[in-house]
Amino acid sequence: MTERQRRVERLLKLRTSQHESTTVRLRAARAVLHETELALQQCSQWSQQARESLEQCSAQGNQQEWLIICADIEASKIVARARDTRRSAAAAEVELAAAQEADAKVARKQMERSLELIAKSARSHDVRAEQNELDETARLVSESSSTKHQNGRFP
What we know:
Elements: H1 3-60, H2 65-150
Helix pairs in contact: 1-2
Organism: Terriglobus roseus (strain DSM 18391 / NRRL B-41598 / KBS 63)
Region (Disordered): 119-155
Protein name: Flagellar FliJ protein
């Protein structure tokens, strides 16, 4: 294995490792987003229950005013949880976007490196083909000169 091949192998291993790291970050961000969505659904359900409880208390009159207060407190807790959940969702979205951007950069760099290697290979192939043509021309000239000299056409 040539030094160039070893460098390419090391580069590919590094890129693969970076890609795997990004993939893990993406999965983690997606899991946080999923948990956030579930928490938001739960908050929505709690909020609905609190509203229903509040409506029931209001319908029963002032004698159960303490139930209204309890429902109001519960609704405040739900709103606070929803805010926290939204913050978590926003943070997860930022992390997801960063991970996707990093993954795209890695893929772009890998593509650029692959194109560079292809271009180098093509240039190397062109140089070899040109050298082969020159060698063939030199051989033909040499054979032609040798043949002409043997036939007495050249002094």
